[in-house]
Task: structure prediction
Amino acid sequence: MAHGSHGHSSDRKLGFAVFINVLLTVAQVAGGLISGSLSLIADALHNLSDAGSIVVAIVARKIGNKPADKNMTYGYKRAEIIGVLINSTSLILVGIYLIYEAAGKYFNPTPIDGWIVFWVAGIALVVDMGTALLTYRAGAKENMNIKAAFIHNISDALASIVVIAAGLLIIAYKLYVFDVIATIGISAYVIYHGMILLKRSILIIMQAVPEGINRRDQGRTGKGGRCP
Result:
């Protein structure tokens, strides 16, 4: 009963994090369109992917908790790994798309309101830290899928810091290329973490040796034995 109660509590926290991320996405898209900032829209898309990753985490955990049956004799736990695979793939795709958009912005620059960028990104930073805390408390230590959602939120908080810096540089120097640089930086960070998660999930699905286990040592020691 206690375990079920903890699960419901975690799902409520994750659900609230989804709600906040969706609201923040709308606010950032509006701010990006009004200010002319691609980096704000990039951060908004990253936030939207965060919301999607949390939804996948919730659904995958519910499926993973189903007991084994005659069709799925090993149970449904691997649904959570599939969730991580979806999350990581979405991160990579979003990152590639943003780099494409940033290239277009570089060759066709437009004026940007740095103050709007600064304030909207500042609010986003506070929200990102709050949702990261929610996902962490919802079980990021014990659950790889929720940990993926947590990493999404942390990377988004870092992205918001980059956008804030870009806004300040635009205000100070009127060099709109900083917006493009921030967008490419965010995208590279997104792709990097996406590749890490994708590799881990594929290795688990392929039943590779878990990280931290040396097969050579295992062969010498046997099952729990010591080397002579």
In short: Residues 2-35 form the longest helix (34 residues). Residues 2-221 form a domain with the Alpha-lytic protease prodomain-like fold (CATH 1.20.1510.10).
